[in-house]
Amino acid sequence: MTPDPDHTDEATQAVDEDDATAAHGADRAPTEGEEAAAERAGTEVPESVADAYEEAAETGANVKGEGAV
């Protein structure tokens, strides 16, 4: 996102520009416990959760204008 020079000072613009080009990544690798929990959780999603996700995605995709949700 390009900073708006009419609403930000030079220092803010410089920080925004640096942040926009900075590499972003995980701060650390997962712990053994976190890896084990992820394996136990698996990849199965309950049908009710999948249905709610699909409904929300469809609602968001079909919004016409701001604040219509």
Fold and architecture overview:
- By secondary structure, this protein is mainly alpha-helical.
- It has three helices and no strands.
Low-confidence stretches: none
Question: Radius of gyration, rounded?
Answer: 20 Å
Put simply, the count of helices is: 3
| Helix content range | 40-55%
Bulk shape: flat
Topology:
Blueprint: H1 10-21, H2 32-41, H3 47-61
Q: In brief, what are we looking at here?
A:
With 69 residues, the chain is an all-alpha fold. The protein is built from 3 helices and no strands.
Quick tags:
69 residues; mainly alpha; 3 helices; 54% helix
